[in-house]
Structures are given as C-alpha cells and as structure tokens.
Write a structure and sequence with these properties.
The chain is mainly alpha-helical and 87 residues long. It has helices at residues 9-23, 37-40, 43-49, 64-80.
Length: 87
Amino acid sequence: MPNPDATPPRARLDRALENLALTFRGMTARADEVQCTCHWGGEDELARLKVPDVELVRRDPGDDGKLLRTVRTEMLTQFDGDSYSQT
C-alpha cells in the first residue's frame, strides 16, 4: 500500500520527533531507576533520561529493537503505572 503522505521521510521524522517531545515533555525516569545496558544503552543514556526535557538526539536509530523496547516499556508504564523489565 503506498504511503498517502507525500512529505519527504526526513520531514516526517522531524515532525514525529517534535510530537514525541511534546507528548513526553517533563517526564523522566525515576531517580532510582536501574536497568541493563541492552535496555537503556548504558549509564550515560540512563542519566539523560533522569533529566526533564533534554533535547532529543536526532539520528536514525541503528538498533531498532532497542528503540522499540525503550518506547514500548515507557508507554506500558504510563498506561498502568507498573514498571516493566526485559530480563
């Protein structure tokens, strides 16, 4: 099925990132959050998640699975308040 949106991919990505930043504005990981590096990507990335409204990194993800696990876990937590773990 062809994409009905004729907007160039980079513009769609930029628009999606802006919407994502707006949706999650002010949200942070809990101060006591700990997780494996396969989930958050390391201590430096986890530290950035604990600071509100950090500028989004605008790059094409090289690890789509990691990105989806991170977004999915955050969304599930927002829906029911529990924390989910990929162990």
